[in-house]
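Two folds, back to back.
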Amino acid sequence: MQNQVTRPVLAFVPDALIASQVGTWETSFAIDRTFSDATTAALFGLDPDEAAKGLPLAAYARSIHPHDRAAFNDKIGRVREHGGLYVVEYRTIPALGDLRWVLARGRYQRDKHTGEITGRGIVIDITENKLDGRIEDRAFFITEEAAESPLDRAAACAIQARQAIDEVDGPEGLGLRRSVDALLLALGRALARRVGALES
């Protein structure tokens, strides 16, 4: 990843969390910047324009529930050192009195030439699922395995498709975003079920 990274900016609407349950993000540890779309920004209570231009990871971590922050930092530290697949659930507080549950899924890879680790992935708002009585059922998973499963490959392709679709304007772009968001949500849930099966 170059030192200058540009991300498409989604039009921000007040009901961003309702419009889409799936956000995308990309992190460069070398420049300490995480770039995200409006949905991800809303889940962390961040300005969508600033999030699209890139913010330090600490800006996102500040919105994570204090009881979940240590586990989040531990897992980020592990992928920062080794790379790999990352699936974790935690709570965010985007605004006073607003508690969200999110499932983050990403893959961190080391550049063969520079040695720098970058990551990209999705974050899914799973608050409604948690309110249905599944608060204690959490996914925490990191693996350094080189081989990707078909679900991992599908999720990576869907993330790339979402980032390209973000550049499509007008009603056509909105319809395509909703379609790919539905796919990302289904993939995220499938990955979470697979993680649960691996941990049981």
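---
second:
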Amino acid sequence: MRWIVRLVVLAVIVAAIGLWVTRPKTDDAELLAGLTPDTAHGEQVFIAAGCASCHMAEDADAEDKLVLAGGQPFASPFGTFRAPNISMDPEAGIGDWAAIDLWNALHHGTSPEGQHYYPVLPYGAYIHMAPQDVVDLHAYMQTLPADGTPSQPHEVGFPFNIRASLGGWKLLFLTDDWVMQGDLSPELTRGREIVEGMAHCAECHTPRNALGGLKTGADWMTGAPNPAGRGSFPDLTPPEMSWSEGELVEYFTSGFTPEFDSAGGHMALVVENLSQLSEEDRAAVAAYVKALPLE
């Protein structure tokens, strides 16, 4: 009996250590202290990050896209996730969030209540945002409308509905290391900030392992099946991606391919976002794509 008691005690200790190591992480407000918000830059961050593309109501159009009432479904092998209301309503949305709450959500995947967010919120990419980016984004979002539509629950079954397990997922896959390394030019550095960070391009264009983590190295941006089960996202590395930088910039601007086809599906929303960035930013994204594959 004594060895059974010891085994139970050991299991409890290991479990407690595991819960402590994988607990939701947060930073204190001092991290953002002294930063002056720039609402105009925050709008550019909002556009590059595709916030409205995911959090607008289904079939929203024109100015209604800025009413971030949520509700769009995102199917995956782990269940169907619903984009929450992130409008400025203090009850249904995030109107009562401070800038540090937004930082912790985007950087650590942690809610103001201290719970893990599912990585359908691409904090694995947003972790690359600088503190100033988040402060500016928070300031811009405060200028957007409030909407009282309640967020819809995710449709996720056991065991994926156990949020505590997400701490282990973060321990394995959440890192602020850049994937494209080396002595990069200013243009490539900016392209990396957009592609790997704000625009979270790899979330669609990079294959995943069995636990849903993005594969890096030679697999980075080599295309992936659509988690909703319809088609796939294209490989952005050569020889599959043969467009020139100029052709990529044109695609990001107008949505037209060199073959005079046009962007469709969710990519049409991505192009809509990219087209609102500066031409320099679109050129930086094109430069990043043409610098692939990684060695």
